[in-house]
Design goal:
single chain, 163 residues, alpha+beta, Immunoglobulin-like, 6-stranded antiparallel sheet, 5-stranded antiparallel sheet, 3 helices, 45% strand
């Protein structure tokens, strides 16, 4: 059985693949994808935005943001860290609350996957982040060093905060 592809069909498929490839980088840090790592102390961190939204629960509406953080240890060692020790998120002066303080074990050469969920009941701050009026600041602390990332929800970009 032979499958023939016309030049036109091939070009359409190639164009669709190019668009899909470009779109896949929308929610990843610095446009390059999960291959872009940031060094924080003796760890390499890979960062992307998992999800965000507003929950209209009758008694307690809240907004949430869930970054995806993959941490890989570079030096020998074994560390047990809590999300509260490692992660913080805010919009302007409004601190988002960490939903659950999980613990993760960081081991040399192994990748630890973290999905910290942050919530807020401040709808004004959440809407300011969604509209692009303000950005989120996501801080990661490892090895006594803190690195802050700017999360632009409107344009779906994550960049390293510079002084």
């Amino acid at each position: 059985m032979v499958y023939e592809v016309s030049r036109r069909s091939f070009l359409k498929g190639a164009a669709a693949l190019a668009v899909a490839t470009a779109a896949s980088g929308l929610l990843t840090a610095c446009g390059g994808g999960k291959g872009d790592g940031y060094t924080i102390g003796e760890y390499t961190v890979y960062l992307s935005l998992q999800s965000y939204g507003w929950m209209n629960e009758k008694k307690n509406p809240y907004g949430f943001v869930i970054p995806e953080v993959n941490i890989k240890g570079k030096k020998s060692g074994f560390n047990n860290k809590s999300y509260k020790e490692m992660f913080a998120l805010k919009v302007g002066d409004v601190e988002f609350k960490l939903d659950e303080n999980k613990h993760v074990t960081l081991i040399q050469g192994k990748r630890a996957d973290c999905l910290p969920k942050f919530t807020t009941t401040d709808e004004t701050a959440y809407n300011a982040a969604i509209s692009g009026e303000k950005t989120l600041e996501f801080s990661i602390t490892l090895s006594g060093q803190t690195q802050t990332f700017v999360v632009d929800l409107k344009n779906k970009k994550i960049t390293l905060k510079t002084a």
